[in-house]
Structures are given as C-alpha cells and as structure tokens.
TrEMBL record:
Pfam families found in the cross-reference section: DUF4167
Top-level taxonomic group: Bacteria
Protein's organism: Azospirillum himalayense
Residue span(s) of domain DUF4167: 35-79
Protein name, entry field: DUF4167 domain-containing protein
Length: 82
C-alpha cells in the first residue's frame, strides 16, 4: 500500500487530499472577502459602516448588507448588548 506509515518512520506522511496551496489572489478578486479590521469595538463599528457605504456606492447591495450586519455586531459588542 503506497501510504503505509510504519510507527517508527516519521518521514513518510500521507498527502493532504483536498487541501490546495493558496497562491496570490487573481487580479480583481480579493484574497479575503473581509480583511481583518483592527481597533476597538466602536472603531470596528465605524469601519464596517464605512465599508457598507463604499459597497453601496459601487452598486454591491449584498456586500453592503453584509457589512451592515458586521457593523451591527460590533455596535452590540461596544454596548454590551449581545
């Protein structure tokens, strides 16, 4: 069997099936849909609202709504309403 790994042989490993290496993002397609937003909960709330406005201006209403939902989450975190 080609994937046998005897207990004493740590150098032979099974291939990672289904895991592909991530290369650089294709031009025009971001690597992450939502890059990390740094700052306090209040700052994150404001930043997500700004992203929602940007998405709305670019015509992407789905992305705008997603950003508003993130902003609402951080609003609740900032005001202890979770």
């Amino acid at each position: 069997m080609p994937f046998d790994n005897p207990a004493g042989d740590r150098t032979r490993r099974q291939p990672r099936i289904g895991k592909t290496a991530r290369g650089p993002a294709t031009q025009g397609i971001p690597a992450l849909a939502h890059p990390k937003v740094n700052g306090s909960a209040q700052q994150k709330h404001v930043q997500w609202l700004a992203r929602a406005d940007d998405a709305e201006r670019s015509g992407d209403s789905v992305e705008a709504e997603t950003c508003r939902q993130h902003a609402e989450h951080w609003f609740r975190v900032a005001h202890d309403r979770i």
